[in-house]
Amino acid sequence: MKELKPRIHENGIDYILVGDYYLPDLKLPEDNRSIGHWGRLHKAYLKMYRPAIYSELVLTCKLHTVLADLNEQAMERCDLITRQMAQAEGVSEQMKAENQMLWVQSMNSIRNRAEEIIKHELIYV
Prior knowledge:
Layout: E1 7-10, E2 13-18, E3 21-24, H1 36-49, H2 51-59, H3 63-88, H4 93-98, H5 100-123
Antiparallel strand pairs: 1-2, 2-3
Helix pairs in contact: 1-2, 1-3, 3-5
């Protein structure tokens, strides 16, 4: 019969007794979603500038879920901002058909500005 090791739960973290020490009982997240580009940017930001928050998310096994959620939100927001800016600036399928280079230049500019907005609003906060 397998002997159960003593466990404690403190500050939202499970600990298991190993020898004379209680160690965090970390589990792999069950979330299979990708953290993507935006999630990786936010993870690097947290590690560098918010280590306490990063450590808490790792120890509570919430990091992957938070990053995957943020990635989905950032992608949706970036697409919305890009569509709205393109409409406001008159960048359309007609422009694409008439002058592809101007359309590409305009869309690249819009996409870059939208990505900067996302970084400011969601990633580096």
